[in-house]
Specification:
8 helices; ECF_S_folate_fam; 4% strand; mainly alpha; Arp2/3 complex 21 kDa subunit ARPC3
């Protein structure tokens, strides 16, 4: 007889398989529903709870940035992004974009690193848009998270952020991109697993958080 642990594992695998098989159809449907998704997300601004929870997530992100940042050769590994993704998941692309932009500016004010570059603010805004669009009001799915992580890490982090970095340093884009691409590709599965665990836990308390 199948125990509870085996049943949970089987249900998870079946759910992920359904997600993979149905991805093309779901992608078309969700793309068509983007205006509705943005409208619903924009409506979250009307709730005081949204402002309060975004403030709490922002404070947690700053704390993690200060105390949970790990130097790794020429790179830095940080978990300050986790509260940001929670905000994107809970409140969607409109809130996620504004939250991301505001947090980038706040972090720069608290700890300036060189000259302020609005390009990096745009990077934070785009990341919030992507994660908010892919995750908002959707079932927590590992493959969905991998999809969002891949879009952000490949095109925004390894692409746009690297271009901005190369421009600032006066270096060639291709001299920086390979190493940054490898780093981001490595982090996709690791960060996806971590975010899946976090969002699965958040789903259990989400109704109480949004009351």
């Amino acid at each position: 007889m199948m125990n509870e642990k085996e049943a949970t594992k089987k249900n998870f695998l079946f759910s992920e398989l359904q997600g993979i098989v149905g991805f093309p159809v779901n992608f078309v449907k969700e793309t068509a529903a983007l205006p509705k998704t943005f409208g619903s997300s924009a409506g979250e601004f009307k709730s005081l709870h949204t402002v309060i929870l975004c403030g709490l997530m922002g404070a947690l992100s700053i704390i993690l940035k200060m105390f949970a940042t790990i130097p790794f050769g020429p790179f830095t590994i940080t978990y300050a992004w986790i509260p940001n993704r929670i905000a994107d998941f809970m409140f969607g692309p409109a809130v996620g974009a504004v939250y991301g932009g505001v947090m980038d500016i706040v972090k720069f004010i608290l700890k300036p690193t060189g000259t302020f570059n609005p390009g990096y603010t745009a990077v934070a805004v785009l990341a919030g848009l992507v994660f908010g669009t892919v995750l908002y009001k959707k079932p927590v799915s590992f493959m969905r998270i991998v999809f969002a992580q891949s879009l952000v890490k490949i095109f925004i982090n390894a692409g746009l952020s690297t271009y901005l970095m190369a421009f600032e340093r006066g270096e060639a884009f291709m001299s920086l991109m390979p190493a940054r691409m490898v780093k981001n590709l490595i982090m996709i599965p690791l960060d996806s697993i971590l975010l899946f665990v976090v969002l699965t836990a958040i789903m259990k308390v989400l109704p109480r958080l949004k009351k």
